[in-house]
Amino acid sequence: MGIGPFSSPVSDDKQAEIKELIEAVLKTFTLQYTKAYAIALVKHIKAEMQETQEEWQLLERPKDSFKKPLKTGYLVKQGGLRKNWLRRFFVVRPDYKVDYYEDEETYNKGGKVKGSIAPCGYSVCDDLSKDLLARAQDIAEKMGIDAGDIPGVDKYPDFCWEVHHSRRRCYFIHGANQEEKDEWVKVFKMCCRHCYGFNNKDPVAQEAFKVAIRKTRWELGRWGYWTYGGTEEQVLSDLIVDELNWTVLRDIYYNIKGPYSVRMTIRNKVLQTLDTVVLSAVTPAYKAMETAVKSLRGRVESVIREKIEPLFKAQEEIKEKIKSAVLETVSPTLSEKVAPRLAGIVQILTSPMTEAFQESRSVFDEKIAHLARKVKEKNGFGDQLDSYFHDLDYAPRSYWVMRDAFRKVDVMEEPLWALRQFFDEISPWSLIWQGHDTLRMILDMAMYTFEKGLEDEVKDQPSIKSDGGAAEAAVQKVKDDVQQRFAADGGKATVIYYREIMMKIIMPFLLKIVTPLTKPIIDPINDLIPEPFREVVDIEEEFESVLEGIVGGAIDKVIEHVTVS
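The structure assignment produced for this chain is given below.
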């Protein structure tokens, strides 16, 4: 592992250890991905046949139908090579990727993009002095460097923030004032959370990849929450480097000697070289996996579809055998460690989400009331009905519009952190952000339902295009209908959120405890899987499904009790 003019701190033994670990992780992931793909394919076909989509009273906006930019404006960014500061016109795309142009005129004319930021897997650091110092201290600790030897962090312009990734290019950007910074930081945080990096658009492959990542980490003994994002190759590379950090790199860092600046330069060279080594192993390995699962699908999909009913029956029989075998082992853990805390978890979630939905409905009411006033003042809609929908489309996508609703959910942070003394795998902010997403989803559905309803009214009564009073009445009529649907779907979405969050809190905790206890019990059941289905029925997956059923039943009883009372 050569690193240019510096002597390498990576011995031949360490290089062999790194290579061996990379190969081991890739082998584990390949097995998990292939297995997860077959299982996900069965689930996909089953969902197709049973049409198990969630039913809402509100209409769902068609996927990818929103084409408008989420935000535009001028910002100043630091160059990637020369580190000079350049004013650019930024455009946040509906897919949460961010383009920047030479200027607004170039964008309006459909000109060339100067650069793009795909922030999947990134985070936003908005307190640079604090964040950069904390990062330097963390690195110093890993390298055995005395904190007193750390030089001061670089200075950046006022109102500056960083779009950060530990192993990819980072972006330093600043606004004109604090208000502009706050607004754009919220937008970039939203983009980091929602930007999707997977290149393979096959939903079966996407689901299998996520499962394989999770189970590979479990096999490596990494049970905690792990945030990731990027292309499949990037995520797999991050997984491997994360494991190397746990097992090999700390010793290598300690072997780097010399002044702080020299040690940091050598460390960065080691990481750059390591990234190249990992990616060169991951790229062909992932291509081979993709080829393998395509071949698998071609081989087993027709068999699954032909024998779907016997397959479902075999799965149910296996689940019943697993349930009978493990219930005696699982029940004490569930009753002693989980059940007593279920009501407390629901109490943490209930008031914030109920109040948040009330705020969300207030946003809907205010936006529609504003629209009603406009059409009355302008004596109808004219021929530009779509122009009245601009504010409605953007409301669910704007942090500032949703801020009061989000803040109702944010108060869960402290009690969720307190739960970590029992359920140490949870990530409170990921659970809170899912609450934000639920609020956005239902409000967007309400806005879209209102728009479609108003379009129908205009078709039925063309006169309201030029009659302000009639237009205002039509707005009120559609609003009243949507409000009723909003209330029903808001309640339903809240209960779904409670259930999903509680499963995320409890399942990793429970699996970590009961998996070693039940493995000797369920392994023999594997021999009972009928031969034609061995490739698409996995005993561990069926065990998880059984456990989810047991936990889900307990959760549902608690939710029902709390929501009724």
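Interim note for the steering committee: DSSP finds 14 helices and seven strands in the chain. The CA atoms of residues 197 and 230 lie 4 Å apart.
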